[in-house]
Design goal:
With 427 residues, this protein is an all-alpha fold. It has helices at residues 3-19, 30-43, 47-54, 56-63, 67-85, 88-95, 97-114, 121-149, 154-182, 187-218, 231-234, 238-267, 272-284, 286-298, 304-323, 329-339, 342-352, 357-375, 377-389, 393-413, 419-423.
């Protein structure tokens, strides 16, 4: 634990001790099981999306989807993340965050099992939405789980599950088509494979939820901890709004990269196969950096310098794509891969900008849900500009321009303060 983290814990420990009774002695196996459960959950936070992206053309043909419906399908993830993420705080207060994450992973698994057997577009969309609802709940509550059970290792644990998320994203994108071909070429089978990983992830969360409920039942009676800050009170925090803006703008860049980067390279004369590999390089950059950046962020009081550094990589990457997309393709892929690591930084700052688990759950729900709403128009707008301008100069100029406010709000979000202090709330 860093000296800064020790000082923060020392400042807040007396207030917490006065408000919260000592918990029952946790089972010795709970911490390692939680680590495994967190990693498995993170591995499942993107395959439902990227596996479908790899087989979207086959799914469209098989289900008779129109182009409009297919476009709607690509917008469903951010919509579900925004809508269902808002329900996470209320569910967590009622059932506890571990139980809600367990239910969320069960929803992911159920949706992935049902989706390949859907005979029509409506059923396919409904099953996809079920999985995405589970992902949304887990997105919001994993930072809360880390804050609650690993308060002295926020950076390390956030880095661990961010790295697992990056692995799940890149592996599903790269492996879905080869696995589908190896299993007979049926796109439904290729999608169904990812349900296995989701089912595996449910198992440890069942054990975690049962143990947490047992501990809660065994805890001695005493005064209850202060309630989580209400939603409207969170909106009074400038830091909360800055985090929401930073989360939304980095998500815009990430989804534009995932959706359009191969096309940018192909239009510049790069082969389709190489363009896919370049996208994989961008995604893979998040694997090691997603572990390093949260640990670095947790070791310093102000994360503004890290925000600015990642933004500079993004500006350089977009400038390269604008000036010489094919000539320096590998360099631009690496630069944008580094820039996309703003996601684990944003998640880490959510854990650092609230003093209590109750504050984190409110901040996480607000920042992620609002952020995903902010990000929704981005990929669509880029497509419209590309279609009407006939090239990538205008879209790339827009993406570079959006990097400036991303850095600005990220620097504000990185300041050493908490939402409780800004809103006059207790822990």
């Amino acid at each position: 634990m860093s000296d800064d983290e020790i000082q923060v814990l020392n400042r807040t420990a007396p207030a917490r001790a006065a408000a919260v009774p000592p918990p029952a002695e946790p089972a010795r196996w709970l911490a390692p099981l939680l680590i495994a459960a967190i990693v498995l959950a993170a591995l499942n936070l993107r395959p439902a999306i990227t596996s479908l992206g790899a087989l979207l053309e086959e799914a469209r043909t098989g289900l008779g989807m129109s182009g409009t419906v297919a476009g709607l399908l690509t917008s469903v993830p951010t919509l579900c993340f925004a809508v269902f993420g808002l329900t996470a705080p209320r569910l967590a207060r009622r059932f506890g965050p571990a139980a809600v994450v367990c239910a969320g992973m069960a929803a992911v698994a159920a949706g992935l099992v049902i989706r390949p057997f859907a005979s029509g577009t409506a059923g396919f969309l409904a099953a996809s939405a079920l999985s995405l609802a589970g992902i949304a709940l887990t997105n919001v509550l994993l930072p809360v789980i880390v804050k609650r059970w690993f308060p002295d290792r926020i950076g390390t644990m956030t880095g661990l599950y961010s790295m697992a998320l990056a692995i799940g994203t890149s592996v599903a994108a790269a492996a879905t088509v080869p696995m589908t071909d190896a299993l007979g070429g049926n796109w439904r089978t290729g999608l169904l494979v990812w349900a296995v990983l989701a089912v595996v992830a449910v198992v440890p969360w069942i054990a975690v939820a049962r143990e947490v409920r047992r501990e809660s039942a065994a805890a001695p009676a005493g005064p209850q901890p202060a309630a989580a800050p209400a939603g409207p009170r969170v909106t009074r925090s400038r830091t909360a709004w800055a985090l929401a803006g930073y989360f939304g703008l980095q998500a815009t860049g990430a989804y534009v990269t995932m959706g359009w980067m191969p096309q940018i390279f192909r239009d510049a004369g790069v082969s389709a196969g190489t363009a896919g590999v370049l996208l994989a390089v961008t995604m893979v950059m998040g694997v090691p950096l997603a572990f390093v950046i949260p640990r670095l962020a947790g070791a310093v009081r102000n994360q503004g310098v890290i925000v600015a550094g990642l933004g500079a990589f993004g500006l350089a990457g977009y400038a390269g794509l604008y000036l010489a997309p094919a000539g320096g393709a590998w360099v631009w892929a690496v630069l944008l891969g580094v820039s996309n690591c703003a996601f684990p930084l944003a998640i880490t700052m959510i854990g650092l900008r609230a003093r209590s688990a109750a504050g984190v759950v409110r901040l996480s729900a607000f920042a992620q849900s609002t952020g995903y709403l902010i990000s929704m128009p981005g990929p669509l707008l880029i497509g419209v500009l590309y279609q009407h301008s006939g090239g990538w100069d205008l879209p790339l100029a827009l993406m570079a321009g959006l990097m400036v406010p991303q850095i600005a709000v990220g620097v504000l979000a990185g300041r050493d303060r908490t939402i409780e202090d800004e809103c006059g709330m207790g822990d």
